[in-house]
Amino acid sequence: MRWNFDEAAQREGTDCIKYDLREETFGRRDVIPMWVADMDFKTPEFIVSKIRECAEHELYGYSFRASDYFNSIVKWLSVRHKWQVEKGWISFCPGIVPALNLCTLSFTRPGDSVIVQPPVYTPFFSAIENHGRTIVFNPLIEKEGTWTMDFESLRTSVSENTKMIIISNPHNPVGRAWTSEELNSLSEICLKNKILILSDEIHCDLILPGFKHIPIAGISEEIADITVTCIAPSKTFNLAGLSTSSVIIPNPVLRKYFNKKIDDLHVGNGNIFGNAASTAAYTSGHEWVDELMEYLKGNVEYVQKYCNDHIPEIIPVKPEATYMIWLDCRKLGMTGKELQDFFVHRAGVGLNEGSAFGPGGEGFMRMNLGAPRATISRAMEQIENAVIQIRKK
């Protein structure tokens, strides 16, 4: 490999949420942090060098996003996902979570219903509830370790107040890379009922070998017309601190509403470092991502084998995408609070407790595998030792 993913980056003492807020989050500073969805691998040099180049200019005034910024996104999506987008469809937003909130404000009104598919990324909930909209749950179906959409429930969930559905594609936390058949079925329901699709595709580049990402807006022009897609280089290249993302809106009317909200709130400027980093990532990042996903595949396989051989009480749900793994801990017979206490205070590992992701998440834990193999190994050994203590009782 050209890049060394076994090399651990030093993150403590850098005002890093994942490491430096462990005591505030878990009540102890020595847990292995495997919760916040960013990786412990160094950002690749071809991005760092562009940021250094910007820093060395010694003047950080107002700037705009040049054609290279947009063209790099267009080409990346074409090469990586066979999705042909136009430069004019791309709007800037300082992060995916802000985009979810801005889309809710732009495309719905207080009292409208918005559908989500839990267990799912928790900011979906606040993006709806914080603005006086109503959440409608369309829970995923879990059967024998596989998670699928419940289309029958989706059909019955629709009412005259339903204006939008927010989907996670690929899905966080269950790790599904939705197929074209699944996305088509969802789209048919949305087209029939005039429901806008807000697709969070921030994990779209983190596809494990053997699987494929399908941009829902790339399926057909008809579907693209009712779809707003959110992407960012932040998860893929460790750039979350630069607050740079894109909202892709083929429909000119929807794009006008969104851009007006961005302008009204004056949040569209971004920053020169985010612009440079995004352009570098989408211009030069293909080989790095390919090697990253091979390494992450090894991490997934390691955890699956370790649980199978040593901790059969925990069953990992095999992910198709993302660097998160969804651990089925129901055989431990604990409540969510008890599971969190077990992993933090007995195993010394900081994970995300499943019920926080909404209905269906009870009894599960989300583990971040975006770390060197040695970190993963140490965490699994500590979890095994904690489980052994339970067996002795």
Identify the overall geometry: globular
The CATH homology group name of the largest domain: Type I PLP-dependent aspartate aminotransferase-like (Major domain)
Number of domains: 2
Report the β-strand fraction as a percent range.
Answer: 5-15%
Q: What is the mean pLDDT?
A: 97
Protein structure class: alpha/beta
Task: State the end-to-end CA separation.
Answer: 45 Å
Number of strands: 15
How many helices? The count is 15
Summarize the main sheet: 7 strands, mixed
Oligomeric assembly: single chain
What would you report as the Rg, rounded to the nearest angstrom? 21 Å
How are helices and strands ordered from N to C?
A: HHEHHEHEHEEEHEHEHEHEHHHEEHEEEH
Q: What is the name of the CATH architecture of the largest domain?
A: 3-Layer(aba) Sandwich
Helix content: 40-55%
Low-confidence stretches: none
CATH topology of the largest domain: Aspartate Aminotransferase, domain 2
Report the CATH C-level class of the largest domain.
Alpha Beta
Strand order of the largest sheet: 2-10-9-8-7-3-4
Explain what you see.
The protein has two domains: 17-42 and 287-391, Aspartate Aminotransferase, domain 1; 48-284, Aspartate Aminotransferase, domain 2 (3-Layer(aba) Sandwich), CATH 3.40.640. The strands form four sheets. The chain has a seven-stranded mixed beta sheet, sandwiched between helices. Strands 11-12-15-14 form a four-stranded antiparallel beta sheet. A two-stranded parallel sheet has the order 1-13. The mean pLDDT is 97. The chain is an alpha/beta fold and 393 residues long. Strand 8 (196-200), helix 9 (221-224) and strand 9 form a beta-alpha-beta unit. The chain has helices spanning 17-20, 22-26, 45-55, 67-81, 96-107, 123-129, 151-157, 180-193, 221-224, 234-237, 252-265, 272-284, 286-310, 336-346, 373-391, and strands at 32-33, 90-93, 113-116, 134-137, 141-143, 146-148, 162-168, 196-200, 227-231, 245-248, 315-317, 324-328, 349-350, 352-353, 364-368. It is globular and about 65 Å long. Helix 3 runs antiparallel to helix 12 (272-284), helix 4 (67-81) packs parallel to helix 12 (272-284) and helix 5 runs parallel beside helix 6.
